[in-house]
Amino acid sequence: MTAILKPPIRYSAALEQPQPTEAETVAQMEESFDTILETTSKDYGKAVRAVHAKSHGILKGELSIRDDLPPELAQGLFATPGTHPVVMRFSTNPGDILDDAIALPRGLAWKVMEVDGDRLPGAEGRTQDFVMVNAPAFAAPTPEKFAGNLKLLAKTTDKGEWAKKALSYVLRGAEAALEAVGTESTLLKTMGGSKNVHPLGETYFSATPFRHGAFVAKYQVVPVSPDLTALTDTVVDTSGRPNAIREDMQRSAATVRGEWEVRVQLLRDTDAQPIEDAATPWPEDVSPYVTVATIRTAPQDSWSADKVAKVDENLRFSVWTGLAAHQPLGGVNRVRKPVYDHSAEYRRRFNGCPLHEPV
Q1: CATH number at residue 233
Q2: CA-to-CA distance for 224 and 18, rounded, in angstroms?
Q3: C-alpha–C-alpha distance, residues 192 and 179, integer Å
Q4: Is residue 128 part of a domain?
Q5: Which of 54, 63, 169, 327 has a Cα at 20 to 30 A from 131?
Q6: Does a structural domain hold residue 305?
Q7: Rounded to an integer, what distance in angstroms lies between the CA atom of residue 114 and that of residue 116?
Q8: Which of 42, 27, 21 is nearest to 150 (CA)?
Q9: Alpha-carbon distance 125 to 225, whole Å?
Q10: Could you give the number of structural domains in the chain?
Q11: Per-residue pLDDT tens for 123-142?
Q12: Alpha carbon distance 155, 278 (integer Å)
């Protein structure tokens, strides 16, 4: 028997509850970002991203928006059927560029081009960014916990890579033991206890909520083509290969025909689907993910010099780059804007190169 779903809840500013301590939290996070950025720019001779610094591959493709969507799904970017160029950047989360033997969560940032409509404050250009991880919830529930995690990452930046490898080995064992009894630890995964999986086989989540036009939603990108699903749960052998993930992705991307479904999970129950607790997954029995578009890629070189220069070096990805119809919601998203702007400004200033949206 199919469960009857509650109707989707319309967006209202009252869904958010900003806290008076958020400005103080932002200042703490910027301090942590400065520690990471100053350390890594000294090491590498250039400024890299304060989070998700190491890219494993870049793909160019096309987003096709379905033409049969019901009104509650045909919102914002997805309101108008058609196709848009897309660029996808696959990464891992630390701000230093580590040996791939240190097993960390995967990230996918993707930028949709030729997007028209009212923009978010400060969002230049005609693009819409989605920043995702391969977990259904964020690593921290609140801005304060996010700041705490970032402070821990800042303290470990540039500290004994050999020790990080050893710790990762131990944490992977601990995480595997938890998963064997039906649970998991986001903190263990963030600190090096993730499975070293192939990026192209992973499912990615926005983890945090956003406006979906007149409604509210989380987003998901799911591999569906046989070439991609064949890579799901494939563990990369990193033995003696510090860039093993990039190498394996480049080898795969040369022949893979990629197809991912973009899915939307609408807000239907504010108790089961909290806005201000980013670490709580939204139950799919309360609101299932529904496909609204498809991303397709042809075989290509995922680490060409041209892509590295244009995308990895000169583009930024931010949940606050895009349409007002996809405004980020919740405390974690609110603090992301000033601190990610802070990081991008450091990169621009240190490298002497402006970061701009592609035309």
Answers
A1: 2.40.180.10
A2: 38
A3: 15
A4: yes
A5: 169
A6: yes
A7: 6
A8: 27
A9: 31
A10: 1
A11: 989 999 999 999 999 989 99
A12: 24
